[in-house]
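Table S2 (continued). Query chain:
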Amino acid sequence: MTDKTIGIIGAGAIGTAFAHTLARHGIPAVIANSRGPASLLALVQETGPTIRAGTREEAAAQDIVLAAVNWSRLPQALAGLRDFGGRIVIDANNPIEAPLFRPAELNGRLSSEIVASMVPGARVVKAFNHLQPGLLSGNPRQDGGQRVLFYSGDDDSAKSDVAALIARLGFFGIDLGPLAVGGRLVQFPGGPLPGLNLVKMG
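Corresponding output:
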């Protein structure tokens, strides 16, 4: 995991929280949004020297790419990117968004399945979507244990890399199995796990 580069597509609540968490541990990353690197100047100044602003293509070229974009804007955010060639995409998206918070129409598909179709060649791992941003960016040990982060995916090697990142950030990772199982459990709305602030004691 230590030699994996990290990109972030999306500088909303989850993308920003993830950047802050990485920065707190001195982990470098490239963050991008739809408005271009200049619009992220304040964010990178706030997070510190390990986080830099880049283009969408730069962020997408990293070994591990966290995608966290408003659901309706996700197709545009991921459109036209090069084949991921086996690199990891962390799906941190939820098929719902402000201001109406109406569930998106998925036509019976899992949201992670739809995301996977937008990132050809990627090994998709669902993670970092079920906690509120303040908990994701906060101290995972502040409640006397380790805050739990769920992850799921169909590629064991990709899950191992994401699990190593989760552990490095101080969280306690729990593998929920393949996307067809874990993706359903953490999908918001619909799954039973989103929003739960679980802490492993001991």
